[in-house]
Structures are given as structure tokens and as C-alpha cells.
From TrEMBL:
<keyword id="KW-0456">Lyase</keyword>
<dbReference type="Pfam" id="PF02666">
    <property type="entry name" value="PS_Dcarbxylase"/>
</dbReference>
<keyword id="KW-0472">Membrane</keyword>
<dbReference type="GO" id="GO:0004609">
    <property type="term" value="F:phosphatidylserine decarboxylase activity"/>
</dbReference>
<keyword id="KW-0443">Lipid metabolism</keyword>
<keyword id="KW-1133">Transmembrane helix</keyword>
<dbReference type="InterPro" id="IPR003817">
    <property type="entry name" value="PS_Dcarbxylase"/>
</dbReference>
<dbReference type="InterPro" id="IPR033175">
    <property type="entry name" value="PSD-A"/>
</dbReference>
<keyword id="KW-0670">Pyruvate</keyword>
<keyword id="KW-0812">Transmembrane</keyword>
<dbReference type="GO" id="GO:0008654">
    <property type="term" value="P:phospholipid biosynthetic process"/>
</dbReference>
<keyword id="KW-1003">Cell membrane</keyword>
<keyword id="KW-0865">Zymogen</keyword>
<keyword id="KW-1208">Phospholipid metabolism</keyword>
<keyword id="KW-0444">Lipid biosynthesis</keyword>
<feature type="transmembrane region" description="Helical">
    <location>
        <begin position="21"/>
        <end position="36"/>
    </location>
</feature>
<keyword id="KW-0594">Phospholipid biosynthesis</keyword>
Amino acid sequence: MQTQDFSTLTKKYLSFPINRAGWPFIAAAAVAAYILGHIWGFLGWLGFFATLWTVWFFRDPQRVTPTRDGLIVGAADGTVSAVDSAVPPAELGLGTAPLPRITVLRSLASVQIARVPTDATVSKAVFTEGQFHLVSLPEAEAENTRAAYVFDRANGAKVAVVQYAGAIARDVAFDLTEGQKVVAGERFGVLRFNVEPIKQLGDKLYRRFFKGEKDALCDGTTACNLKCCLNGKNGLSSLHLRSHHLSRIDLYLPAGTTTLVAAGQSIVAGETVVADLASTEAARPFETR
């Protein structure tokens, strides 16, 4: 491989900008790692890797956004969990008729930056306080904390985005204001994690392993946020953790819109075209290969 090629690959894959919202978390993780390292070297290494993970969590790569009129791009990196029709949340003011909806779930590995799906003016921006259920659970749609936006396109069509907080990443950015003009692919929020669920899990693990409380992780009377379960008569023979998704983003499209993605597909915020309002193309068939 030529030196120039190696340099290009390094620049593309091994270097990336960090969102400014992440620097306080990165600094806190680095300070904690330094202190822990003076207490016990092993803890210092754990803190070091936690710091690296925090840097990775808040990465903010550039995106190449298609700009032809009518194209709607993904609002979040992640996996499409559903393509269906649903009634938008009442706070959006979009009526009670079901609209085409694309639901995307983001995991720990996803870039946590949300992107504007289309050139538009923000006509509605509403933040709703709520619960912090796992975003894959049915009750998350109605009960979780969320930030919702309606984007009015120049031709009058409305596109809406609803970003839900999850069980771990609970701090949903609310960055856009009503009347603000935005363009497709523009950043409009970064998801930030909350230390409270980590503290709760740490307390449960401490009570389980150091105090011998076998039901500390799951007591069977309240829902465990991490969906843990203990098996075995004499202790912990297996610990099952449900696959975690940090957050959920729902994209609502104008009535009659044909979507261009399918459930199970991975999409890239600001780049993947999820719908084309100017196209008459029929629904695409999809196949898992």
C-alpha cells in the first residue's frame, strides 16, 4: 500500500472530530482514571479504557448529504426497527390520522448525533418530560422523555422527528427553536448518557457479590431496567442482559409517502435517503442476504 493511501485511510477511519458536548464527560472520565490509577493500577486501566470509550461515544464525523429537492435523509445512525404507519404524538399537532413512520434504534456503537432530515423551517419544537423505559419496549413511545420537532418544507409538506431518551442515555438534547431555518444533514442534537442507571447497576452488583443478596439484580417485584435474571440454586450461574439500545428516533412523513428503507436495515444519519417526496417510484422490495 502506498504511503498516500495509508495516510488517507488513517485520516478517514482513525481520526474523527469530537462533539463539544462530549468534552466535559471525556475530561471527567480522564480525571477519574488518573485518580483510580493512583489507588490501584488495574482500576486506572479500566478508567483509561472508559475514557477511550467516552471519546468514541461522542465522535462527530462529517457526512455527505444528498441535496436534491424532495429527498428525505435519515435523522439518526442506527438500525431501522420498523417501517409502518402511526398516529404522531399529540404535541406535534399533526392530527389523528396515521402517517408513514420510520423508527430507528441507536445502540452504544452508533454515532449519537441527530441530523435534520430535510431543508425546512422548524414550526414546532416540544420537549416532554417522562420515564426512561428501554426504547425497545412498547410503553416507551407514550411514556418516555422525548424531544419532538415539526419541519415545514417550502412546498408545505411537513416532516416530524421525535427523539426518545432511553434507560441509560437519558439526556436528550433540545437544540432547535421554532421559526429556525435548517438544512438537510445539519446537526441538531447529541445524546448524552446519565450516570444514575450506572450507579444503580453498581449498587445492585455490590449487594449481589459482596453482601450475598441473590435477588439484588432482579427481585421479581419490580421491572429491572437492564432485564437481568439469575439462574441456579447456589448463586449466579448465568446473567442475561437484553440487547440494549440507547435511544429511539421516529421519523414521520407526509401522508402517501413511499419509504425507501426496510426493517433491519442500517442507516447513516444525513446520508441515507429514506424517502423521496418528488418520486413516483413504487415501494421497493427488500431481501436479507
